[in-house]
Amino acid sequence: MSASPLSGKTHPGFDYSEKPLALSQVINAQFTKSSFNLNNWFQVSFRNVAWKETNLTGTRATKVEFDSVEFKNSDLSGFKCTHCGFKNVIFENVKMDGAHFLGAVFTNTHFIKSDLRRADFISSSFQNCTIDSDTAKYLSAEKLQKWKLQVKETP
Prior knowledge:
Structural class: mainly beta
Number of strands: 17
Shape: globular
Distance between the termini: 41 Å
Number of helices: 2
Mean pLDDT: 85
Oligomer: single chain
Low-confidence stretches: none
Strand content: over 45%
Radius of gyration: 15 Å
Largest sheet: 17 strands, parallel
Order of helices and strands: EEEEEEEEEEEEEEEEHHE
């Protein structure tokens, strides 16, 4: 994989909608008030990347790795992720209406004030992951137990 030209930069108001991104790495980048609507990502690695107030609705990701990544005040509605890995990831105040994760692996991932009510996690695993009490109150006890999410009190 080669480094993407998106690496090592801050991108305010960046529009990268309806475009493919494949076989590349995005490292040390920040996207603020940006748009990644209806993207197709294939075998991409995101490392030390932040999406703040960014729209990623309808994006499809296959075999994508997210390492030390933050999604904050963003919209991931309709986000489809197949065989993706999430390590050291924070989802804070993120809308995930209709998001679908198939065969995803979550490690050290934290969900804070995020809407997971209509998110699907099919054949996905969670290791050392937490969810805040504000987010947990909308999920059934069965889902919390099945996903092995530890509930942390919201300060």
